[in-house]
Design goal:
Length: about 550
Amino acid sequence: MKRYSVLSVILILTLLLTACSSGKTEGPAQPAEPTSVPVPTLEPTPEPTAEPTKPVGLVDTLEGVRTATIQIEAQGTFVDPQVGMVYNAAGRGSGFIIDPSGIAVTNNHVVTGAALLRVWVAGETEPRNARILGVSECWDLAVIDLEGDGYPFMEWYQGEINPGLEVYSAGFPLGDPEYTLTKGIVSKANADGETNWASVDGVIEHDARIRGGNSGGPLVTSDGKIVAVNYAGIESTDQNFAIRGSRAKEVVVTLQGGQDFESIGINGQAVVAEDGSLSGIWVSSVKSGSPADKTGIQGGDILTTMEGLVLATDGTMADYCDILRTRNTTDTIGVEVLRFETEEYLEGQLNGRVLETSFSFANEMEDEVVDTGDTAATSSDYMLVQDDYGAIQVSVPTTWNEIDGTAWYDGEDIIGAAITAAPSLEYFNNYYDEPGVFFGATDDVALLGGYIELLDAYRESFSVDCKLEGRYDYEDVAFKGAYDWYSSCAGSEVTLIILTAKPLNSTSLLISVIAQLLTDADLAAFDEILATFDVVGTLP
């Protein structure tokens, strides 16, 4: 609105004439000098301020949000942990356009691994194609580029996000092509962002109800500003979660530039066996050309360890993402993968070695045991056990159900944590014809020396009863060491393995494993033990 300043001026002019008379006229009367009256100076009227020009296509109303909200259909091969392989699955989610050139934001879990993206824009009956520019599985964000340009678009909200802020969820829930809008308020400004498919620093909770298919859609204000990106909901408790816009847009800038962020290029989720015997990141699909793809990770794999750390023991992506946040995108990262379909463990390196079959005692020594029967086992055949101090854990066969979790002793001195498991501890501790395992971990390296020194010390004891078949190097994705192989212990047909090792990334820890193996099933159990061992607490 134009504004003008108005000055009201009232001028009063007084003219005084004075007649001087003293009985004599000395000359003609002179007019008196007029009184000086100041004339105010008028200030110039300011020019009207021009309003800023609104960018063409910018949404600034709630009604306009519909035009910049899109529905996305991802087609490709996805592997679901519950139902197995799903070919050419057509999952649908939502997204929103942030630039008239067709740059749009959505969730990583909506698009990553898709062979083809089809996008429906408001007012159009035919879908458009789109390509992925960048993704982040930890932030569950992705940026895509729609074909064409001249799109309506939205801007990020700049204000404070506090409980009570009125918000609206826009999108296409349940795969329905009909656009929906739900109203609510922000109920929590800083919510927990740890889920089984993301680890987000900057989450808000709100009650503008969302459902499956709302993923990736915008949470907006009444004037169409993007408050956050919807990514999760709990229907039973009516809790809805969104990635705070101020944090999301920082990641989006990176993704828009064609660079992934806190990502190895997978679409996955954390899984944990009911008894805790197996955990990891289930890979549903893999982005072509990503570090995961180049390493050989496939849909249906379970990423069990990274840098020797067992993943997803708490059912979230937290540990996985913490590792990525402490590494550069080009760093070499050791990984171990369980190929679920073939039940084989593979190991390799992101940005390094491709996956290959892990060292397996079952493969190396299958001809050295008495019983070569069926060794097929499932996760239900194992149980996760811990020592008495909660320091270490490992999966052992359910038939090895006698457990000793007392400390690892050197004489009368405690030097670390230990777990002993066998069908009968008495027989395992006193005879060689009982299967079982002792697993110890110590940080008293100065006392024991390196893993070779420790292995030599064991040799002095066991060589009395057993025949030494040889010493061999050992290395897996987490440990490097050596093992001695003994046979014919006290006339038994046992295969006795004594393994000592240190973590690849540390010199402050030693592990010791003594295993009595009689069957192929025992050998397979030994592989499982080595694959699942983890330090989870403070060593005594």
